[in-house]
Amino acid sequence: MGKTLFDKVWDAHVVRELDGGRTVLYIDRHYIHEVTSPVAFLGLKNRGLKVARPAQTTATADHNVPTVDQHLPIADAQSREQLEALSTNCRANDIECFALGHPKQGVVHIVGPELGFTQPGMTIVCGDSHTSTHGAFGAVAFGIGTSEVEMVFASQCILQPKPKKMRIAVDGKLGAGVTSKDVILYIISQISASGGTGHFIEFAGSAICAMTMEERMTVCNMAIECGARGGMIAPDQTTFDYLQGRENVPQGEAFDRAVEQWRTLFTDPDATFDIEYRFDAPAIEPMITYGTNPGMGVAVTGAIPTGEGLTGSDRTSFDKALEYMGFHGGEKMIGKKVDYVFLGSCTNGRIEDFRLFASLVKGRRKAEGVTAWLVPGSKDVEAQARAEGLDKTLEQAGFVLRQPGCSACLAMNADKIPAGKYSVSTSNRNFEGRQGPGARTMLAGVPMAAAAAITGRIEDPRKVFEL
């Protein structure tokens, strides 16, 4: 019996199988940030231990950082303390830390790949749900809790049950104006926000293979939003081209040898999955969410479902979501008012996202009454955007390029959407209060965000930009 891509990577890292179905799994790369690491560091200190393998740990400041005036002292006391604790703990444990002001600082799931720390065949963890992003490289990557962060600090291993396996194939060519964000929002809308529970997803098919690495990262980033443990894509020439020459990737002949090994990371033809889905790429339109979980999404040309057929707790949750959003079943999404637009996060904060947004708004003007936060995912993305003149294009259209951080993805910094206001966000979650207490979030891809920013409402980006 052949092996899946997931099996090949997981099995190569098994230290020991334990009774009860748990595995001692070796971890190649441990990413940390300022929110979930302090308690883990404290636990380590109380046990008289230090980080076992600091060279395999990478730290960056992202969740709590401001996205303007980063040279000034941080006003919020808790944020300031957590960021200071990250730097102090990393110094005490010989961990490289990209603190606020460091030229490599940025969102952890953007910094890792762009610096070449993330590579095919690795096991990768972080105290953050969206660690699944790194699966785009053919890695087994997943989020862990604070106690597990401490476990990896102490041993470079973790106790985990082996997930079930799912394959989702998307075949065919995507239509104009349809992005990888639309693909993953469509998938989640079809299988639900709990459809992947207990599984690791391999994304496959011609539409997935045609994506750039940054697009693949967007897809894997949101695998967690259908309840999956993580998502991954088999590495190919696109992967190798992206990695070649990056700072922490093998160089020269060592790179060639690494590629030879990476080429073995694919699912064997006779391997089996617990569940398989297949979707047609041409059927996918630009997507927008209308509710309070990422599975509550529709094509922009569609209408909000009426909830017909739902019963019990499902109906209660549906009605509660629409009440929170101020929407009604059967309403069209096109034309709905937008107050805020957020471009950024570990989902859509990469240079390709900013190139696309700038190309769409070039020669146009931001709508009056819309507040737009355009937040690069790293200092490198910010520098690239400025070097390419994207900041000037954005300024001419009435936008401002901010500084790197998680920003309005979550309400842990100053970038909060006010209660009752509507936000079109390129981030990954639209839970109640996710972007601020009472904030009403609609998840979408970059073209949809650009269309909302210049019209002040939900519109089909294919028509706005004649795509």
Describe this protein's structure.
Helices cover 32% and strands 17% of the residues. The chain has 467 residues and is α/β, with parallel strands linked by helices. It has 2 domains: 5-277, 2-Layer Sandwich (Aconitase, domain 3), CATH 3.30.499.10; 307-464, Aconitase, domain 3 (2-Layer Sandwich), CATH 3.30.499.10. β1 and β2 (22-26) form a beta hairpin. The longest helix has 16 residues, at 77-92. The model has no long low-confidence stretch (mean pLDDT 97).
Q: What are the SSEs and their pairings?
A:
Elements: H1 5-11, E1 14-17, E2 22-26, E3 29-32, H2 38-46, E4 57-60, H3 77-92, E5 96-98, H4 108-114, E6 123-126, E7 140-143, H5 146-155, E8 157-161, E9 164-171, H6 180-191, E10 199-204, H7 206-209, H8 213-221, E11 230-232, H9 237-243, H10 253-262, E12 275-280, E13 287-289, E14 297-299, H11 312-325, E15 340-343, H12 345-348, H13 351-361, E16 371-374, H14 379-387, H15 390-396, E17 422-425, E18 440-443, H16 446-455, H17 461-464
Parallel strand pairs: 3-4, 3-6, 4-5, 6-7, 9-10, 9-12, 10-11, 15-16, 15-17, 17-18
Antiparallel strand pairs: 1-2, 2-8, 13-14
Helix pairs in contact: 2-5, 6-8, 13-15, 13-16
Count of spatially separate domains: 2
Strand content: 15-25%
Number of strands: 18
Helix share bin = 25-40%
Q: Supply the CATH class of the largest domain.
A: Alpha Beta
Q: Shape from CA axes?
A: globular
The chain-level mean pLDDT equals: 97
Tell me the Rg in angstroms: 21 Å
In the CATH hierarchy, the third-tier topology of the largest domain is known as Aconitase, domain 3
Class derived from helix and strand content: alpha/beta
Note the gap between the termini: 46 Å
- Please describe the biggest sheet, giving its number of strands, its sense, and whether it closes into a barrel: 5 strands, parallel
Number of helices: 17
The CATH superfamily label of the largest domain reads Aconitase, domain 3
Q: Which architecture name of the largest domain does CATH use?
A: 2-Layer Sandwich
* Biggest sheet: strand arrangement: 5-4-3-6-7
- As residue ranges, the low-confidence spans are none
